[in-house]
Amino acid sequence: MIDKLNLTEEIDWTTVGLYLLLVIFGWMNVLASSYNEQFKSVFDIHQNYSDQLLWILVSFVMIILLFAIDYRFYHFFTWVFYGISIILLLAVLAFGVEVNNSKSWIRILGFNFQPSEFVKITTALAVARYLSGYNIRLWSWKSVIVMAVLIGLPVGLISLQPDWGTALVFCCFILLMYREGMPGWILAISLFITILFLMTLLLASISVLIFLIALAIIIFAIINRKPIHGFYAGIILAAFYFGFRYSFPLLGISLSTYYLLLIALTASSVVYLILAFTKKIRSIALVLIFLFGFIGFTYSVNYVFHNVLKPHQQTRVNILLGKETDVRNVGYNLNQSKIAIGSGGFFGKGYLKGTQTKLDFVPEQSTDFIFCTVGEEWGFLGTTIAILLYIGLLIRIVYVAERQRSQYARIYGYGVASILFFHFAINIGMTIGLFPVIGIPLPFFSYGGSSMLAFTLLLFILVRLDSVRKVYIR
Amino acid sequence: MDQFATRRNIIAGIFILAALALVVRLFYIQVIDSSYKLSAENNSKRIEILYPARGLVYDRNGELLVYNMPAYDLMIAPYELKQFDSTELCNILGIDIAKLRAGIARSFDPKYRREPFIKQLSPETYANLQERMFKFPGFYVRTRTLREYSKKSAAHLLGYVGEVDEKMIAANPGYVMGDYIGISGLEGYYENVLKGTKGQEVLLVDVHGRVKGPYQDGRFNKDAIVGKDIVCTIDSKLQEYGETLMKNYKGSIVAIEPSTGEVLTLVSAPAYDPSLLVGRARSMNYTKLERDTLLKPLFNRALMANYPPGSTFKPIQALIGLEEGVINVNSSFSCAAGFYARGVSVGCHIHSSPLNLLHGIENSCNAYFCNVYKRILENPKYANTEKAYEAWRNYVMSFGIGKRLNADFTNELRGFIAPASYFDRYYGENHWNALTTISLAIGQGEILVTPLQMANWTAAIANRGYYIIPHVVRQIEGIDTIEHRFYEKNRIGIDTANFGLVIQGMELAVNGGPGRTAGIAQLPNIIVCGKTGTAQNPQGKDHSVFIAFAPKENPKIAVSVYVEHGEWGASYAAPIASLMIEKYLTDSISPGRKWVEARILNGNLLYSK
Questions:
Q1: How near does any CA of chain A get to the CA of B247, in Å?
Q2: CA distance B130 to chain A (A)
Q3: Both A295 and A315 in a single domain?
Q4: What's the number of domains chain A is made of?
Q5: Does any domain span residue A63?
Q6: Percentage helix, strand, coil, to 5, in chain A?
Q7: Residue B43: which of A175, A356, A421 has the nearest Cβ?
Q8: Do A338 and B29 touch (CB under 8 A)?
Q9: What 3-state class would DSSP assign to A45?
Q10: ipTM for the complex?
Q11: What is the pLDDT tens value at each position of chain A, 474 positions in all?
Q12: Do B4 and A359 touch (CB under 8 A)?
């Protein structure tokens, strides 16, 4: 039975409105980024902007189709969609077209098509479907394994292409899982590890080590409620450090400060443990476990960076982190991107007046670096408005998700919010040097049919589900 | 409601925090940090310098001496390179493939993007290349101009132009690498007039450096302004003639128009071809010329050589004596083949004795001028020798000796005339007198002059009491006057009547009786007044020196000639000077004097010592 759905009332017009604003603003910038003196017509199919316009229209048609299809369809066919998308990922690996050293594209019916864009949707649906099932306790062994497989499978296949950026997007599901009951400390530690990871790459290993030790001493002092103990711990460490520092050369051993400090820490840890045992201060052991755990983490990050990553990947990371300032070559993308955005000033240079994007200084200016055009032509005012639109949409999605009667729709809603957030934050972050240059598109802005279509689908499946929010989908 | 519902606030909080981080960062790079705006400017525009042509140089008769020829630099626009036949290009340019490869590789370095791949292609290479340019996309030719000379003469006077080096940039703000600058001579002194003003074309370029059109509709474009032309005072025919006469000699000729101070000729021999110091070959040729330590062709003797004036100084001595009142026209001194007093002796040649002033000059009697000098220094008017000497020295310096004349040259030297303190140091105070310094009486010893100074005092004598600072520029395009000091009369504090007497003596030296010293300088229908000099020097044979002006009334030319190791003033310097005067005043050499010309042209003292 098909519902007598009053579309005009049940559709969340706030979401649709924000979507339309983003799409229109986005298209204007795609036009600006490919605009040049030979501008002919908006309908010249050989230009990015007219191509993009076509895809926007296709997306609109798709939205109508989405509403024509019964809402139970998505729930019912979730596993089929997921299965098809995994098969498509396999097909890409087998028959894909290689672009920029990565096999991400497949040619279907004369169109180049990027399956990984759609896998995000099917994975979000699958996760929602699984977690909304009967008697699922998120933190049971079984569900952890199933979730790991559900998310790990596409991540693995996408990594084989390899398309690290898109693979990384699946990290965003941690937000969804947190909402569904994952312990908060996992999220906290994940965030801490992310920060530590960036610090490890950015700072000298000795600085990170000192940071970790200092943090450990402070935390120890706080949980032990005796600041003086933290002070004693520091004294013991310093005594060992200087002892080694002046005695080792006499023994003919010369070590870098990093290793000297590490050995001093190990030696003082023995003393700490003995003290902990005799004085019955148990928290020492816990702090030490975490401390050595994180030291091990930074050490392995350094190891991977220096011994596993290829030189061009190393430089890319280094440049992103501002360690190398090679303006012309690898750092070129980021540097030009910052110049374009920075030159926009407060009010921008005016629509279609950007020189940096117009003269091709910014690479990938209509796809991954579309935000440069926003920054250059619309200035700080424009970038702030764009960010406000995104945040408005994200908060609205969270609100929409929370009002769902069925768990399935709610979980999917958080999936949509997480995916959009991840794309939005990392894409803009990378154009202004806050994040490594990872080639992922800016939703609704970046030129490209697959991503335009996929993000529209992602969002409007939620809008469709929301339109029947009072129904319990099962 | 499930137990985790409040977590939506934490998730929303994470969204907002991340957005806040982005906005803060954007505020920093877009609003606070202005360096990106500058980078964007530099990114998208390229300034092409338009080099102006230097001003032209004409001689006093309007003949073009220095002009410009286009020079072609081969440039590479690296991002416009396409496949081409490298062998063919190498053959046209006459280079090997390695050099081509290196040049292309270098062109990708933004530091060198504006530097030519090959500087100053020869006209043949350029013509060859131009026909086939379409085959080599990415290569283009930039035109600049180089100096070109219509005559192989006046090299020292004109100076040369070269590319600035780091030292010059430090000393002359406003120049950048690749600019040309006048380095010596007229090119150096009048650099600011000749150089013109660089223009610029501001172009909009894309990321590959491809030109997309004028930047902001050419609002910042500026045309290059061509340098101003200069009319110099040189008579190029006379200059060439002087160089021809001097081609086998070391030394100098300076000719001045006394009434204006305009330098008619400035010869420093041996000379070189000015076109040797142009363009690509300049540094190589310069080194070659510099290494010739025997002839020193780069050394501008006319301005920089410090020579003893010898007897050409005697007219000045006479003038001082007359002005100080220690002699008059009838003062006679005897000469027994020299001057002998208290252990001092100055030899002289054989002539009748005693002689009065006019014949003293005519015969160039050493004894006469030793007596005059002695009288000047022993003049009871002065408290002591030192005072008398300083008074004498002031007279000498008023002729422009021992100081820079402040002509429009960059490398003029001052010569030397010893101050009293010099002798005080040497002999001790009050332990010297006229006899200890008696060499000065005949222009030897502690006096050194440049040929320019000699010509200048000759002009002062010709003017009967003043000189105008010698200069080589007559007129600058678009400017009504030249520098003010070139109009001023520098008066010598000596009575005009006394000049008349000395001039009579100089007339006799050329046109007088059997005792005359420079009869060879005599010209038909023109009264030449002159004075020979035979300057002793520590290097070897005496130098042959002569100063002269003509005609006696309303003199048109004053000239000094210095021929190194030419022995008697009358043997080389006097005939050369007379030929110069004759050439200038009559435009030809009279048949009766062709033998004089031939003797000079056939002589050779280049390597004599």
A1: 59
A2: 31
A3: no
A4: 2
A5: no
A6: 70, 5, 25
A7: A356
A8: yes
A9: coil
A10: 0.85
A11: 345 555 556 889 999 999 999 999 999 999 888 776 555 555 566 678 888 999 999 999 999 999 888 888 889 999 999 999 999 999 999 888 877 677 888 887 777 788 999 999 999 999 999 998 877 776 788 888 999 999 999 999 998 888 888 888 999 999 999 998 888 888 888 888 888 887 777 677 888 888 899 888 888 888 878 888 888 888 999 999 999 888 888 888 888 888 889 999 999 999 888 888 888 777 888 888 889 999 998 888 888 877 777 776 676 666 555 555 444 444 566 777 888 898 888 998 888 888 777 777 777 788 888 999 999 999 999 999 999 999 999 999 999 999 998 999 999 999 999 999 999 999 998 888 777 777 889 999 999 888 999 999 999 999 999 988 877 766
A12: no
User: In CATH, what class is B47-77+86-232?
Assistant: alpha beta
Residues of chain A in contact with residue B41, where contact means CB-CB under 8 angstroms, are 343
Q: Considering only the beta carbons, identify the residue of B14, B16, B29 that sits closest to A432.
A: B29
C-alpha distances out from residue A92 to A103, A107, A441, B518, Å: 7, 9, 19, 109
Strand partners, A103: A98
Whether residue A470 is contained in a domain is answered as no
Alpha-carbon span A259 to A380, nearest angstrom? 46
| Cα–Cα distance list, A261 to A43, A50, A401, B124 (Å) | 66, 61, 50, 73
Q: How far is A4 from chain B (nearest CA, A)?
A: 28
Q: Search chain A and give the residue with CA nearest B27.
A: A380
Judgement on whether residues A259 and A352 belong to the same structural domain of the protein: no
Cβ pair A346:B30 closer than 8 A: yes
In a domain, A291, yes or no: yes
Mutate to test the interface with B, among A35, A335, A380 (most CBs of B within 10 A): A380
Residue-wise burial string across A48-57, b where 16 or more C-beta atoms lie within 10 A, e elsewhere: bbbbbbebbe
Q: Beta partners for B66?
A: B57, B149
Question: Nearest-CA neighbor of A245 among A263, A232, A272, A270?
Answer: A263
Where do the structural domains in chain B lie, given as residue ranges? 47-77+86-232, 300-515
Phi, psi of A158 (to 5 degrees): -70, -35
> Cα distance from B7 to chain A (closest Cα, Å)?
6
Q: Do A341 and B207 touch (CB under 8 A)?
A: no
Considering the domain architecture, whether residues A246 and A315 belong to the same structural domain is answered as: no
Do A322 and A259 fall within a single domain?
Answer: no
Nearest CA in chain B to A174: B11
Same domain? A208 vs A280: yes
Same domain, A341 and A299: no
Q: Out of 3.40.710.10, 1.20.5.110, 3.40.640.10, 3.40.50.970, which CATH number does the structure's domain B300-515 have?
A: 3.40.710.10
Residues 173 through 212 of chain A touching chain B, CB cutoff 8 Å: 175, 178-181
Binary contact (B5, A402; C-beta < 8 A): yes
Cβ-defined contact of B206 to A432 (cutoff 8 Å): no
Same domain, A335 and A264: no
C-alpha distance from A128 to closest chain B C-alpha (Å): 16
Domain that holds residue A213: 199-303
A341 interfaces chain B, CB cutoff of 8 Å: yes
Place of tokens 């890409």: A92
Look at B33 and A391 and tell me if their CB atoms are within 8 Å: no
For residue B29, the distance in angstroms to the closest alpha carbon of chain A comes to 5
CA A164 vs. chain centroid, Å, equals 11
Instruction: Say which amino acid occupies A449.
Output: G
- CB-closest option in B27, B40, B213 to A340: B40
- Tell me if chain B has a CB within 8 Å of the CB of A344: yes
Binary contact (B8, A425; C-beta < 8 A): no
Of all helices (H) and strands (E), which one includes residue B147?
strand B139-149
Q: Within this chain, do residues A273 and A328 fall inside the same structural domain, yes or no? A: no
Whether A245 maps to a domain, the answer reads yes
User: Least CB-CB distance to B31: which of A178, A380, A395?
Assistant: A380
Q: What does the alpha-carbon distance between residue A423 and residue A459 come to, in Å, rounded to a whole number?
A: 14
